[in-house]
Amino acid sequence: MADSEQPNALESYYFQIKKNRWHWIFQLVCRILLAYAFIVAGMVKILGERFASGLSVIHPMGSYLEALHHTGYYYTFIGYAQILAALLLLIPRTVLVGALLYLPIIVNIWVLSYAVRFVGSYMTSPLMVLANLYLLAWHYDKLKYILPFHRYSKEVSLAKPVKYEKKFPFLFFAGVISTMAFFIWFSLFGHEVMPQNSLSDCKSQFIDTENEEAGFEFCECIHTVGNPLDKCLENLESSRM
């Protein structure tokens, strides 16, 4: 860092994190898990198979994936983009580029999963977004030079420490576990009603409840009739009145 620039409190904290072995291990685990997820998903698309093929084509997520599967080379292009992002994450010198490519793809998956309440990625997609953001934060020393509040400096990135600190960051990992627990809780209890992935699973959440009949109609609306989720939810609310 140039002599004219002094690190602020946030950057000083960042410098400490970069020297900590546990944080280094955590970012490595994030890279491997994120890469694995996209390699699997990307290969399905490259091989021309429909993702989550077990979903009915009239399921909210199933109908989207069915339409996406029939977009031809666009579907294959998404697969190659996922594989490329995964490989870039695994190469130390290209992690930042991989994380930048990964982010818009996984944010799109997250929003889509929440929009249609898709059980398959309802829990994992927000955790993957957070892991991706952590990788971007880990490479803040490089990332800051493309951000609008950039200040000139001759140094582009920090040198790898000669020896990593071994102090375990209890507060940080407590936050990680708490955040994961929140998203797991939200995926299980955040919505009173979920379409689930099959008619039987959908109906199981209404058995022996006061809204059993209305709930079964909601499930039939989704899995048999094939109406949009919003319309089926509106019908469910109307039946309860």
Residue stretches low in confidence (pLDDT < 50, at least 5 long) are none
Oligomer: single chain
Write down the Rg: 22 Å
Helix tally equals: 12
Count of DSSP strands: 0
Distance from N terminus to C terminus (CA atoms, Å) equals 65 Å
SSE run:
HHHHHHHHHHHH
What structural class do the secondary elements suggest? Answer: mainly alpha
- The overall pLDDT, averaged over residues, is 90
Describe the sheet with the most strands: none
Number of domains: 2
Question: Nutshell version of this structure?
Answer:
The protein is mainly alpha-helical and 241 residues long. It is built from 12 helices and no strands. Helix 4 crosses helix 5 and helix 5 packs antiparallel against helix 7 (124-138).
Question: What report would you give on this structure?
Answer:
- With 241 residues, this protein is mostly helical.
- The protein folds into 2 domains: 9-146 and 170-189, no CATH class; 199-240, no CATH class.
- It has 12 helices and no strands.
- It has helices at residues 9-18, 21-46, 60-69, 73-90, 95-116, 119-122, 124-138, 140-143, 170-189, 199-204, 212-225, 229-240.
- Helix 4 (73-90) crosses helix 5.
- The longest helix is centred in the N-terminal third of the chain and has 26 residues, at 21-46.
- The protein is globular, with a radius of gyration of 22 Å.
- The mean pLDDT is 90.
What topology does this entry show?
Blueprint: H1 9-18, H2 21-46, H3 60-69, H4 73-90, H5 95-116, H6 119-122, H7 124-138, H8 140-143, H9 170-189, H10 199-204, H11 212-225, H12 229-240
Helix pairs in contact: 2-4, 2-7, 4-5, 5-7, 11-12
